[in-house]
Design brief:
The chain is mostly helical. It has helices spanning 2-9, 13-40, 45-59, 67-92, 105-121. It has five helices and no strands.
Amino acid sequence: MQPSLLAQYGLSLTQAGLLGGMLVFSSSVMQPVYGYLSDRFHTYLFTALAPAVAAIFISSLGLAPGYWLWLAMVWLGGAGVASFHPQATANATLGVKTNRAAPWPSSSAPERWAWRWARRIFPGQQGRSA
């Protein structure tokens, strides 16, 4: 998205970087808020509406007339992304009856694999061992 915004609208690298940073920042900042609301109000609206909110605001960037409105739309799109994750995590554990505190093998195995390859590619770097 950023290279096309640079070429089509003449944004500077700083402005394009701020748009990406705003998306990540807004989804990170708003996620605990939505986590609290998701725990307090047990509803599936977060799961159903959040992708739509994110899609509407992020895909409508081409319609915005200026940079400040782009920043607002990216912020709201990031908030839509943030509202999905807490409820999706809660929904993922609904069917789990035993070993709820056990780590998921699908998330720990790729991490160990990535660290092993990273140590082979960058052998002089210090880091944690897998």
